[in-house]
């Protein structure tokens, strides 16, 4: 039975696992994304998300608690300055796990774990992009743009026609001048 075994031990002793997760969390906060195995990424998410939540309240007590986990002064400073400011409005879900191809050596499932607010691909630019419409649901804006484009083309043709008309009498005058 596995009653009460909610922590994935990752094949390590308690002290080794805590040190490894602290190092991985520091790397994640410094570099904003790291590549690791899927099991370690899931364990790291459970480890680092409460620390990011704790960093939203910038008090001496919360800094000391987070330092107790991470044991790295620069990482704690960056977490409370940069990362906490970006995730202030987010209620949770600060990390994203993206599965990668299996590792060549031992065929282990690999994953990329990253901080959500630091990715430009999935960020606000992708959300603001216009959605593609289906053929039956064409927008009215596109229909209104088409006549405007036609009127511009018609105006351009009229201007060219006027230029041709103006040039033609001048050409006739020169022929008459030569004939006389």
From TrEMBL:
UniProt xrefs under Pfam families: Ribosomal_L17
Domain of life: Bacteria
Keywords recorded for this protein, A-Z: Ribonucleoprotein, Ribosomal protein
Span list, region Disordered: 126-180
Family indicated by similarity: Belongs to the bacterial ribosomal protein bL17 family.
UniProt cross-references to NCBIfam families, sorted A to Z: L17
Protein's gene: rplQ
Family annotation (InterPro entries): Ribosomal_bL17, Ribosomal_bL17_CS, Ribosomal_bL17_sf
Key word RNA-binding present: no
GO cellular component terms, A-Z: ribosome
Keyword Ribonucleoprotein (UniProt): yes
Regions of compositional bias (Basic and acidic residues) in chain numbering: 142-163
Quaternary structure note: Part of the 50S ribosomal subunit. Contacts protein L32.
PANTHER family: LARGE RIBOSOMAL SUBUNIT PROTEIN BL17M, RIBOSOMAL PROTEIN L17
Protein name: Large ribosomal subunit protein bL17
């Amino acid at each position: 039975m596995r009653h009460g075994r909610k922590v994935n031990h990752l094949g390590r002793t308690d002290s080794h696992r805590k040190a490894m997760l602290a190092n991985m969390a520091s790397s994640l906060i410094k570099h904003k994304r790291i590549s690791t195995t899927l099991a370690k990424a899931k364990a790291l998410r459970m480890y680092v998300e409460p620390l990011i939540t704790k960093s939203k309240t910038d008090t001496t007590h919360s800094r000391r608690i987070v330092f107790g986990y991470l044991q790295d002064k620069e990482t704690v400073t960056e977490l409370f300055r940069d990362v906490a400011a970006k995730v202030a409005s987010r209620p949770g879900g600060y990390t994203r796990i993206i599965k990668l191809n299996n590792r060549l050596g031992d065929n282990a499932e690999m994953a990329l774990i990253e901080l959500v607010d630091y990715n430009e691909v999935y960020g606000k630019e992708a959300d603001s992009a216009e959605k593609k419409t289906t053929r039956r649901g064409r927008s009215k804006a596109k229909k209104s743009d088409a006549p405007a484009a036609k009127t511009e083309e018609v105006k351009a043709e009229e201007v060219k026609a006027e230029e041709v008309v103006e040039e033609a009498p001048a050409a006739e005058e020169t022929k008459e001048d030569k004939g006389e």
